[in-house]
Structures are given as C-alpha cells and as structure tokens.
Amino acid sequence: MRVSLIIPALNEADCIGPLLAELPLGLVDQIIVVDNGSTDGTGEVAQSAGAEVVVEERRGYGYACTAGVAAARGDVLVFMDGDGSFIPAELAVLVQLIDRGEADLALGSRMLGGMTPGAMPGHQAFGNRLVARLLRILYGVHLTDLGPFRAIRRDLLEDLDMRERTYGWPVEMMVKAARRHAVIIEAPVTYRPRLAGQSKVGGTVRGTVLAGYRILTVVFRYALAGRPRPVGRSKMA
Ligand SMILES: Nc1nc2c(ncn2[C@@H]2O[C@H](COP(=O)(O)OP(=O)(O)OP(=O)(O)O)[C@@H](O)[C@H]2O)c(=O)[nH]1
Ligand SMILES: [Mg+2]
User: Which residues of 36-72 are buried (b: 16+ CB within 10 A; e: fewer)?
Assistant: First the structure.
C-alpha cells in the first residue's frame, strides 16, 4: 500500500524543517505539507526539506487537510501536525494497523502513549476526555483521545463525504467512521511540546473556544442524523 503523509501547517517555519528531518527514510511514499496561508515562509522551508507543498489560502485545519487529500496519491493517508509535537517514526504503527487490515482508521492516542509534562494544557486534556466520553455514549466507540495524528484508508475517507472545514474536521472523521461501523483502533503515540513557534488552538483562548464549539456541534449533529450505510468490508486489503 502506498502511504501519503499530509501535514497541515500554519506558520510553522521553525518547526517544519527539523520535523521533516526526523522522518525516517522509506516510511512514506509522499510527503505533503499544506501551507495554510503562512506568512513566515513555511512553504519554502518545507519545499527545501523535500516535501511537496500545497498552498491552501482559506484558513482552517479542515481546509488544509482537504487540500492535502486532493493532492495525495496514497492508499493510506496519514495526518500529522506540523509543529513537531508528534514523533514521525511512530506513524509506522498506525500504517501497519491499516496495512494488515486490522483497522480502517488508526488513531494515535496520547493518553495511551504518554505526554511530556506541559505538552497539553489542562483544559485541552479535560475537553478531550469529555468528548471521548460523549463519543462512547452517542456512537459506542471506546476511545481515549481525539488526536490529530492518525491514518485512514483513502477509500473510506472519500466515502465519508467530509463537510467540516475547520476545527471540526478530525472529529467528523471519527464520528462518521463510527456511524459506518468502520474498525477504529487506537495506538499509543508520544506527545511533546511543539518544537518552536506559537500555538493556534489549545494554547489560545480563541482557538480553544472555536475548536470546542465546532467539535461539540459535530458530535451532536451526527448523533441525531439517520443511520448511514455500513462501510464496505470487501474493500479491505
Ligand atoms: N488552528 C489551525 N491550525 C492549523 C491551520 N492550518 C494548519 N494548522 C496546523 O494544525 C496543527 C495544530 O495546531 P497547533 O497550533 O499545534 O494547536 P495545538 O496543538 O492545540 O497547540 P500547541 O499546544 O501549541 O501545539 C499545526 O500543525 C498547525 O500549523 C489553521 O487554519 N488553523
Ligand atoms: Mg500542536
């Protein structure tokens, strides 16, 4: 299976070079950095570090991921933040779960993997736990985290008809996959503080409020919607 790594990045010029340098050779077939309207030269740095750069001017994590998916050629798509808070080599475990047919969506869990103290602000950890509990009650999935570091079968993602374009994108993927009875498995991943630069979500009041609002909207919206068709298991490798 071919693997595309998609890295949404907004003003991560000081992180993206060291992050790409940390990615072991041969682990993925395509590296896409989606420059989400950065003003600090993130795109240029990513390009000189060997990544394909896709420019998406419309601000939003979901816009960036959507543009990355459109440019991806892989059968397995991996999403990872561009701030260096995840260890790129750990994507191998996520990809393996998909490759072996053990999961349709493999989620990196920071709760299972461990966090450097201070890597995640308290309110973000609380919010993650709360939403994970809601996902269990409303969708019957047992998860410990809402991590953005994840791998998914491309054909499943295309079937999900993703609508969110900002902070709700990652949880929309989880909720819609759960509604399709896709196999969702968590694997431990490490979480550390961003390598440099500034937080856009958890470390800001604006990011926290907007993300919380979008995430909860998505969680409740699809809980009330009608049943979708289950995922086609015959497509599994
Ligand atoms: N919020 C946000 N993030 C974006 C956007 N486009 C790309 N990103 C990337 O999404 C990832 C997550 O954003 P972070 O700022 O690290 O959010 P966070 O992890 O809650 O905050 P930290 O604790 O500082 O790491 C980073 O790689 C961003 O560069 C966007 O439009 N909005
Ligand atoms: Mg971060």
Answer: bbbeeebbebbeebebbbbebeeebbbbbbbbbbeeb
Helices 122-139 & 169-179 angle (0-180, nearest 10): 20
Residue 231 lies in a domain: no
Q: 24-40 pLDDT, tens per residue?
A: 999 999 999 999 999 99
In a domain, 128, yes or no: yes
Q: Which ligand is nearest to the CA of 165?
A: 1
Q: Count the domains in the chain.
A: 1
Q: Is the pLDDT reported for residue 237 higher than 60?
A: no
Ligand 1 close to Cβ of residue 82 (< 6 A):
yes
Q: What is the pLDDT of residue 69?
A: 98
Q: Could you tell me if residue 195 is inside a domain?
A: yes
pTM (predicted TM-score): 0.94
CATH number at residue 124: 3.90.550.10
Q: Note whether residue 29 is domain-resident.
A: yes
Domain span holding position 60: 3-226
SS3 of 6, please?
strand
Give the atom of ligand 1 at the shortest distance from the alpha carbon of 8.
7
Q: Is 169 in the pocket of ligand 1 (CB under 6 A)?
A: no
**Regarding beta strands 76-79 and 3-9, do their DSSP bridges make them parallel or antiparallel, or are they unpaired?**
parallel
Nearest-atom number in ligand 1 for the CA of 194 is 25
